[in-house]
Design goal:
Elements lengths: L2 H7 L6 H9 L3 E3 L2 E2 L11 E6 L2 E7 L16 E4 L24 H11 L1
Antiparallel strand pairs: 1-2, 1-3, 3-4, 4-5
Helix pairs in contact: 1-2
Length: 116
């Protein structure tokens, strides 16, 4: 089964087009190799997906015939633990709480310094 079709069927992406783009951008890694969307994934392959600053790792158990419901996904893959070192903190609204208005000039400079 193609890797882009597989990661779409096990609900890591909302559309097959987004799964294909993720493969083309190098965000999908199978057995420590960046793969193209047409890569044929096999049982017991280790897949790693980088999406929205998070890394998802799992082991392929079986192949669904079509997209499955969220309750049935665990029949086709096994999650692996991801190190907290790989996680990127959410940088939006890092200093200010939601609803506190716009940052002051000093706070904006601190935010710009932190992000660069």
């Amino acid at each position: 089964m193609r890797i882009d079709f597989y990661i779409w069927t096990v609900r890591y992406f909302e559309s097959r087009n987004k799964a294909t783009k993720a493969c083309k951008n190098g965000n999908v890694i199978v057995n420590d190799k960046k793969v193209k969307p047409s890569y044929e994934v096999l049982v017991n392959d280790e897949v790693s997906i980088r999406k929205n600053g998070n890394t998802y790792k799992f082991l392929v158990l079986n192949f669904p015939k079509s997209r499955v419901g969220s309750k049935l996904v665990d029949m086709y893959r096994t999650k692996k633990e991801v190190d907290s070192k790989n996680k990127i903190p959410n940088k939006t609204n890092f200093f200010r709480k939601k609803g506190e208005g716009r940052p002051t000039k000093k706070e904006r400079r601190n935010i710009d310094k932190f992000l660069t």
